[in-house]
Write a structure and sequence with these properties.
227 residues, alpha/beta, disordered N terminus
């Protein structure tokens, strides 16, 4: 199986794999509808932590079958849960690598820091790739004209799992005009283009500031990936 180091060590960057290779593997997940069937929680996360060390789609499917049989878990539930976590994780790994290969961006020196992925010209940031919220009543044009509202919504409604925090964050928001926003997480070359475009014209003055805790400022911005 194609395996690399677990996520607690940032040296898991894809030293032996190209962005193109990961994009090919991620797109193999597209043929299945994006549905969880099981609410995300620590118990099911523990069942599927193997997703951190398997980057190859066929190896992933084999492992899902083995874990399902071993733990007597309904295969359909485990399948959907695992492929979604795998897809989101490996997209995130690739996006982080895109950032940290740009001049002026430095990967965090603390591999266990869940609140900082890298320094963007001296400013600490976590990054989060998210899809355009389907239940928002407003369209893309409105969201782009009101970025502050959207960023605040993401901070307030983020997952309560391990990476929940209210510190500096760059949001990569995926919007597909046909509604399949989640598929853009695998469009790594498109994401790379938009990240490089953003960083090339970056200035600290363009960041939005939020005060979620007294005396503490949080800085954020959005990088749009649309198709």
């Amino acid at each position: 199986m194609a395996r690399i180091a677990a996520p607690h060590n940032r040296t898991y960057f894809m030293s032996k794999q190209t962005l193109h290779t990961i994009e090919i593997e991620l797109k193999k997940r597209w043929k299945y509808p994006y549905k969880w069937l099981q609410k995300q929680n620590n118990k099911w996360d523990n069942y599927t932590n193997f997703i951190y060390t398997i980057s190859n789609w066929n190896d992933l499917i084999q492992c899902i079958d083995e874990i399902s049989e071993k733990n007597k878990i309904e295969s359909n539930l485990l399948f959907n849960y695992a492929i979604n976590r795998w897809y989101n994780f490996w997209s995130s790994v690739a996006v982080e690598q895109i950032f940290t290969q740009i001049d002026g961006i430095i990967v965090t020196k603390n591999p266990k820091d869940r609140e900082v992925d890298f320094k963007l010209f001296g400013i600490n940031f976590d990054h989060k790739t998210s899809v355009f919220p389907k239940h928002l009543k407003n369209d893309l044009a409105y969201a782009q004209a009101n970025k502050r509202k959207l960023m605040e919504w993401f901070f307030r409604n983020q997952s309560s799992q391990r990476r929940h925090h209210l510190k500096n964050r760059l949001f990569i928001i995926c919007y597909d005009e046909n509604g399949a926003h989640w598929k853009l997480k695998a469009e790594l070359e498109l994401i790379k283009f938009q990240i490089h475009k953003y960083v090339a014209s970056f200035s600290e003055e363009q960041l939005y500031s939020f005060t979620f805790a007294e005396g503490t400022k949080t800085y954020s911005d959005i990088i749009w990936v649309t198709k």
